[in-house]
Amino acid sequence: MTDKENRLPPTEWPPLPQPGMIEEILDIIAHEAKLDRAALVPGATMESLGIPSLDMVEILFEVEERFGIYVPMGEEMVDTVYLHDLIRVLADQMEPK
The pTM is what? Predict the structure, then answer.
C-alpha cells in the first residue's frame, strides 16, 4: 500500500464555494453511476464504489456542465482514493482563479 492508501478515511466533505453543492454533486454521482445515494460518504473509496471509467467520464461531464467548470483528467485525479478526494478536485476547480 502507498502512503495515500494508508491514511485514515475522511469523515467530512471538503468545503465547497456554495451551500448545497455537495448534494448536487452527490446526486449526479448517484444518478450517473447508478449507486445508492447512501453509499456516497466521504470515506468511501473509489474502488469500493466500483464506478466504471465510462460512468466517471459521464459524472465529470455532468459536473462540468452543471457548474460551468473544467475538470482536468490528469495529475489532479491521480490521488483520488476516497470520494472526498474527488470532491476536493471538483471544489478546487470551482474556486475563483
Answer: 0.87
Print pLDDT tens along the chain (97 aa). Answer: 455 557 899 999 999 998 999 999 999 999 999 999 999 999 999 889 998 888 989 999 999 999 999 888 777 787 789 999 999 999 988 876 6
Length of the chain: 97
**CATH for 20:** 1.10.1200.10
Beta bridge partners of 82: 45
Does residue 21 sit within a domain? yes
Q: What's the rounded Cα separation, in Å, for the pair 69 and 33? A: 20
